[in-house]
Amino acid sequence: MTSEPARGPVDATTTNAWGSLTELSKNLRPDLRGWFAADPDRAQRLSYQAADLHVDLSKNLLTDEVLATLVALADEVRLTERRDAMFAGEHINVTEDRAVLHTALRRPSDEPLTVDGQDIAADVADELAKVYAFAEKVRSGEWTGVTGEPVRTIVNIGIGGSDLGPVMAYEALEPYVQDGLEVRFVSNIDPTDVAQKTADLDPTTTLFIVASKTFGTLETLTNARLARDWLWRSLVAAGAIEDSEDGRSDAVAKHFVAVSTALDKVAAFGIDPENAFGFWDWVGGRYSVDSAIGTSLAVAIGPDAFAEFLGGFHAMDEHFRTTPLEHNVPVLMGLLNVWYVNFRDAHTHAVLPYAQQLHRFPAYLQQLTMESNGKSVRWDGTPVTTETGEVFWGEPGTNGQHAFYQLIHQGTRTIPADFIAVANPAYPLRDADADVHGLFLANFFAQTKALAFGKTADEVRAEGVAEDLVSAKVFSGNRPTTSILAPALTPSVLGQLVALYEHITFVQGVVWGIDSFDQWGVELGKKLALEIAPAVAGDEAALAAQDPSTAALIAKYRELRS
Ligand code: F6P
Questions:
Q1: Catalytic: 402?
Q2: Pick from 288, 356, 325, 331: which is nearest to 510 by CA?
Q3: Cβ(143)–Cβ(207) below 8 Å
Q4: Integer angstrom CA distances of residue 460 from 36, 398, 409, 476
Q5: Is residue 285 a contact partner of residue 160, using CB atoms and an 8 Å limit?
Q6: 26 assigned to active site
Q7: Which of 26, 111, 245, 402 is catalytic?
Q8: What is the pLDDT of residues 134-150, one digit of tens each?
Q9: For the purposes of burial, counting CB atoms within 10 Å of the CB of 387, is it exposed (0-12), middle (13-18) or buried (19 or more)?
Q10: Dihedral angle sign, alpha carbons of residues 79, 83, 84, 89
């Protein structure tokens, strides 16, 4: 196995397909009404199945020729070669010289995979077994706090990938959470976060999971110390421990566990490495919810449901790995995103789950997509040759409809949008005779229909609208959407959805020639915050070293701060 990817990035803009797409886009007159009228099979032809997900691409600004040329682009940039290199454990994260193997976290454990001389399939299975054993102990009440009480609340302390994945999945799978267990998530270094999340907690039944890949993240370590202080203080106040070194270390041993790749730093914090769950540098933070970073979720929903979650990821991995490009859903969706960003001038992409339980999914995707593909250089260090990294955003429907959909329907920009829904709700309530989920999904269907087909001036006039109001009431249509429909929001379906977007992100990164697995752009701000902290705390020399605007802002803060 080589440690370097075989070849450098292909400049997509020099390919034949890119030239053809430029021409196709120039000549394209989007006409979804006309296209559907002329081609009764369009919906069926452009709908695909990936594991349990039914994906309808037919309301995109897409002709058969565009689609074929996008697939040709994937061939020319050697997408399959790069995909296979990822699955094989080559060091495709070039700037960090690492393999990229989140897919190994969800492979069947009996299929060996050797990477850099190590059987990582066995490592993954061992660590997962440790997480599951811990989850069972907490769920059964065998794991107890200092007073012998079982755990009722787990507080996951982490940020970025060590928070967004677990909280998103916990919210999504809330119906699977064991009765009597609750998970809270502390991420922000704003002291409000830890203060609010601990305010009403009983320390004797609370367990903290400190989740940090590096175990060096300022926010997480600060919050972990705040939580530890709160635990000590409140256990002493409750008379549950002595105010002594022994009392405090007993409290940490029974109320703190950690998840990290840096087990030495976990020990330095005072957490017994026996109570720590590891993972590996070939798992990126934003790709880590299916590693031990998901321990809080594994406790909440239990090992069986967590295994189903992993199975869902694997099903989508297999679809991505083995399906011909022209039917490969993550490939097609990734290429469509390239089409919109590079040829149709889209700057953003909305993700609109019609499932309240997916309310943190857009936030999760923001890190996945933007930390991955928000890059200006390619993996060989040369500048990118085209636009990259659109802004991902969204909110659950129907809330978004009453907030920002106006701009999607009638604004001046193209905003491709993914609509996600499940057929069977967790809470099948009725409003008199009406199935409320049916009413909810009527909105899901209506919105994509309105966006695609709009309403012409003549149709508006036919409703008797006064002429001076007609233009305000016209809907242009031809606003692109993808509809994703799943049977229900099961652990498996959630895993499939996450893996789908992981692979979409990968496909875009390959076309743009960028390393989707590093995140150097987050470093400068972190370093400056550490340098500025003394100035904020009152160090005049540190203040004087700042630029005039920053110095004035800090001075103003110090003046305002009581
Ligand atoms: O600063 C960005 C980042 O490094 C993310 O990539 C990562 O998910 C997050 O911080 C948290 O990092 P850690 O898990 O090492 O605390």
A1: yes
A2: 331
A3: yes
A4: 21, 24, 15, 12
A5: yes
A6: no
A7: 402
A8: 999 999 999 999 999 99
A9: middle
A10: positive
